[in-house]
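Troubleshooting log. The previous structure file for this entry was overwritten by mistake, so regenerating from the original sequence record. Sequence copied from the archived sheet and checked twice against the printout by T.R.
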Amino acid sequence: MRTFVAALLLLLLGTVVTAPARADTEVLHYDTRIAADAATVWYPASAAHRLPVALVLPGANVRREYYAGFATELVRYGFVVVVPTHYPLFFADYNVPSEQSLNDVVTWARAQARGQDSPVRSVVDPENLVVAGHSYGGATALYAAANRCQPPFCLGLAYRRPAELRAIVGHGTNSTFLGNVDAVTVDAVPTMLVNGSDDGVSDLAEAHETFTKLTGSPVTAFVDVLGANHFGLADEDNPPGAVPDAHEAVLSRQRSVAIAARWTAMWFRANLGDEAAMNYLRHGADEPDSGVTVQIR
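Regenerated output below.
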């Protein structure tokens, strides 16, 4: 295991390792339905080539509109972003992310690439899927990557992830169940966990133990964001309906969302073959990320 502390690296190396450029492009969005779920699609007004699909799975009972800033930033790093809302029980007004969303979004992306009237017809790449999940959404991505039908994220008898899945990131995510951290074995999917040092919902120690017990991934990373709480990637703290975090974030909202999106995008791009993104992950961060500690194994 190698631990990289960005501020220390800047002193030792005497240089700044910067992230691959973020495009200052116009970002558009529209609402649609993917299978039975309402969803919002975020995409660039123009792109020189097709872009991977980044599925963002919200936290439990968090409305998808609270991830607008995060989704916008991901688009500018080169993705078509989809944020769904899933209600597992038609009679209960409580949304929980679903493992099936991974399969449904691939089916949707294939149809969009062929559809004459789709706004993303010329930009979406249905062959490459990455997933970022928040809290319950991160756990959903983790168990989907493990091919485990894990209630309440999957209510069937079995589950199989789509072959197009390339990498996942869980924000404020752990695999604790009844006081014990579940050892999850993913199906050869590169996995990153991101946790704020001030997260009062996903305990930092439990998130880190989830990382250390994780197996099956060709490469795994843990990012500790100093001063961020549980809602560091959301547009506001404690959105209506969510389990609240009693810890007030030290980081500003703008900075915490930017950091969350940057490290998520770098993980995705690195595992899609971007050497500059991999270099950023392994050798430090630019100056605004000096409070980030990264472990890669």
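The helical segments are 6-13, 68-76, 100-114, 136-145, 204-213, 253-270, 275-283. Archived copy saved in two places this time.
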